[in-house]
């Protein structure tokens, strides 16, 4: 079997005296979705920033296709095929869909000082790339700010696929979406996986993660509660772990005891 696209082993990160991440291990394979789950403050953002080249790890090992790396910038991660779509999407709302699709990599025509923006090729390429992902927009000239949250997420996913990403990191893509729009985004996550990408899906919702996930890394307060293949954990157990099963059981016992004392 070929080396995983990404493998982290006992990764750790501290900010001064604050321990943000400790001894976290997981893998990301081509054609699979690795879901990273946890509540706020669990360490999800720190992990993806290390993978995306925003921060460097302090301890542990970070391998990309079997080779150790320590990225100095997001550009270095992108050059190795790791694309990250953050929750705020980093789009320009008043700019057209196709201009946002090519933002920073605009197609041009002509040469030297006579180079000009190739609008026709930009529109056609954007329309074709979106259609390949099954995304049917009314007009690629419309401002991206007029799209729904789910549509904007899908455009960002299609952009990463078009520009040759091997690994797609999605930061809480369904967090602010309704049920229907979340379903649309998860459908495109599955499409990216089926096209051979390795996907890292960051979420706090096990019901969004489980249908598309192949592997589940659970984080709590910067530490790993375990990394499970789908065959080894049910949606019920994943939800219980996420909800803090032991803490909830203790609380339930405490409330019952208090109610019993009150009745007495």
From TrEMBL:
Q: Does the keyword Transport apply?
A: no
Molecular-function GO term, any one: ATP hydrolysis activity
Keywords for this protein = ATP-binding, Nucleotide-binding
* Signal peptide (UniProt feature, chain positions): none
**One protein family per Pfam:** ABC_tran
Domain ABC transporter: from-to ranges: 6-246
Q: Which domain of life is it from?
A: Bacteria
**Protein name stated in the entry:** Sugar ABC transporter ATP-binding protein
Species of origin reads Solihabitans fulvus
């Amino acid at each position: 079997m070929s080396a995983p696209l990404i493998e982290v082993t006992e990764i750790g990160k501290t900010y001064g005296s604050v321990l943000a991440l400790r001894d976290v291990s997981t893998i990301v394979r081509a054609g699979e979705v690795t879901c990273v789950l946890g509540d706020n403050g669990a360490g999800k953002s720190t992990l993806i920033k290390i993978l995306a080249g925003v921060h460097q790890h302090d301890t542990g090992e970070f391998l990309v296709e079997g080779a150790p790396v320590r990225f100095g910038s997001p550009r270095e991660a992108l050059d190795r095929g790791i694309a990250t779509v953050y929750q705020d999407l980093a789009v320009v709302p008043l700019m057209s869909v196709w201009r946002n699709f090519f933002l920073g990599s605009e197609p041009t025509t002509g040469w030297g000082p006579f180079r000009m923006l190739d609008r026709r090729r930009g529109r056609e390429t954007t329309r074709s790339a979106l259609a390949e992902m099954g995304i049917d927009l009314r007009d690629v000239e419309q401002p991206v700010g007029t799209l729904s949250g789910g549509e904007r997420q899908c455009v960002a996913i299609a952009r990463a696929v078009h520009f040759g990403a091997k690994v797609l990191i999605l930061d809480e893509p369904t967090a602010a979406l309704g049920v229907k729009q979340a379903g649309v985004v998860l459908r495109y996550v599955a499409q990216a996986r089926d096209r051979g990408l390795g996907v890292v899906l960051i979420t706090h919702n096990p019901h969004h993660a489980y249908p598309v996930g192949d592997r589940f890394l659970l984080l709590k307060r910067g530490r790993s509660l375990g990394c499970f293949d789908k065959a080894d954990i049910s949606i019920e157990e994943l939800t219980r772990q996420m909800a803090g099963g032991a803490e909830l059981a203790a609380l339930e016992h405490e409330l019952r005891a208090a109610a019993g004392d009150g009745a007495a």
